[in-house]
Amino acid sequence: MAFESLSEKLNAAFKKLRGKGRLHEADVKEAMREVRLALLEADVSYKVVKDFINTISARAVGADVLESLSPAQMVIKIVNEELVRLMGSTNAKLQISSKPPTVVMLVGLQGAGKTTNGAKLAALMRKTQGKRPLLVACDIYRPAAIKQLETVGAQLDIPVFQMGTANPVDIAKAAIAHANKHGNDMVFLDTAGRLHIDEALMEELKNIKAAVDPAEILLVVDAMTGQDAVNAATAFNDALGIDGIMLTKLDGDARGGAALSVRAITGKPVKFAGTGEKLDQIEVFHPDRMASRILGMGDVLTLIEKAEQNFDEKKAREMAEKLSKNRFTLTDYYEQLTQLKSMGSLSDIAGMLPGVDAKALAGASVDEKAIGKTEAIILSMTRQERENPTVLNSSRKKRIAAGSGTQVVDINRLLKQFETMQALTKQMSKGKMPAMLGGGKM
Ligand code: GDP
């Protein structure tokens, strides 16, 4: 999985902030020292790390900790926001020409994943934007390169244009003419790579660029090479000028250094990510989702935002009372479930809280359909049953199943979820209460 070693180290740093009542400068300093080390070990550029830590420290010390967030959560929130910013804030889209065909020139070192990911991208554009792509073999130096492009093209049912070992500039021009004639509105030029950046390669790429004026020069770099990927990006950008970056092999990148530095160092956005060898393993690069993954916590920010928008503080406090006194009943559970409808699953929400093992809560996850069933079941119970589910023997369960149009297994499942939830609340009442279950407004 991507980023796991970085995630682990960052989480270890945050763990130490748990249980702290307020954010004191010394605590933040200590945590930041560890975050800094984690980033350096992840092969994030030194300068990027330095700026990043300075920004976060300044924000964290003396930050107005939201009432419902623990200091650890507050620091994670800030780190998350800064990671997103570091990676470019929003997804940058591929440039599309006003007059077709849109020419995308794929450049990069040999082995970075140009050929495979260029083809994946062509397929993605066809699927998501209804484009009619053409793949073009401009790598005339490795005979295997043309064959490889033809193979992936055939697998994806995308036409491939090739002229053997003709001059790459001529091939590119002929390919565009071919595209015009055959109605291909996107042309992907698979250019030659080298093991190292050299003059001859750059010269050739510049000539192609001058001849076809591509809408997008997309640099393909191997995320697993960390700072080398960033150096390659800098060199290509200086020599050729690039418009965007495709990070490949993210699936094998435990450290994340390239993903985190390349935008800050080159000023050019990462637009796509390759996430495996299969031809559909490509993703549009979203800085916010990457940050969440790095922090190993799903889509936290979205959840926090949703919580901010959806929660009734007074009700939440009442619920907190009940939870802390263990007077939380199925009626309350029902109320929570209806609120959850707009929030996502319980395990997702629990997963965003430091110290709660989301995996252990898989049984407590709630989807919308299940909520509908649960509503029906709880509404078919008597008041006494809702307040005290232990009275539910098998004949009562049968009655409720009949009344709610469900099965006894559904009722048992609900009771199990409720128990899991109670266990969770016990666990949390020892530490910090998650706001959505009653810790106040997030
Ligand atoms: P090129 O020389 O730049 O054209 O690179 P290729 O497209 O031939 O890719 C080099 C190798 O990397 C091939 O074995 C690909 O299957 C592999 N590869 C490309 N992208 C990914 C990716 O996102 N994840 C993984 N695991 N392997 C990839």
Automatic annotation (TrEMBL):
This protein is called Signal recognition particle protein
Q: Which CDD domains match?
A: SRP_G (cd18539)
According to the UniProt entry, the note on domains is: Composed of three domains: the N-terminal N domain, which is responsible for interactions with the ribosome, the central G domain, which binds GTP, and the C-terminal M domain, which binds the RNA and the signal sequence of the RNC.
Per the UniProt record, which EC number(s) apply here?
3.6.5.4
Per UniProt, residues of the SRP54-type proteins GTP-binding domain are: 269-282
| Keyword Transit peptide belongs to the record | no
Record's subunit section: Part of the signal recognition particle protein translocation system, which is composed of SRP and FtsY.
The reaction(s) catalysed by this protein are: GTP + H2O = GDP + phosphate + H(+)
Q: Give GO terms for biological process.
A: SRP-dependent cotranslational protein targeting to membrane
Task: Write out the function statement from the record.
Answer: Involved in targeting and insertion of nascent membrane proteins into the cytoplasmic membrane. Binds to the hydrophobic signal sequence of the ribosome-nascent chain (RNC) as it emerges from the ribosomes. The SRP-RNC complex is then targeted to the cytoplasmic membrane where it interacts with the SRP receptor FtsY.
Location within or outside the cell? Cytoplasm
Q: Kindly state which keywords UniProt assigns to this record, in alphabetical order.
A: Cytoplasm, GTP-binding, Hydrolase, Nucleotide-binding, Ribonucleoprotein, RNA-binding, Signal recognition particle
Residues the entry annotates as binding GTP: 108-115, 190-194, 248-251
PROSITE patterns the UniProt entry points to: SRP54
Organism encoding this protein: Sporobacter termitidis DSM 10068
User: What SMART domains does the record tag this protein with?
Assistant: AAA (SM00382), SRP54 (SM00962), SRP54_N (SM00963)
One GO MF term attached to the UniProt entry: 7S RNA binding
Concerning InterPro entries, the annotation shows: AAA+_ATPase, P-loop_NTPase, Signal_recog_part_SRP54_M_sf, Signal_recog_particl_SRP54_hlx, Signal_recog_particle_SRP54_M, SRP, SRP54, SRP54_GTPase_dom
For whether the record's keyword set contains Iron-sulfur, the answer is: no
What family does this chain come from, according to its entry? Belongs to the GTP-binding SRP family. SRP54 subfamily.
Give the UniProt entry's GO cellular component terms.
Answer: signal recognition particle
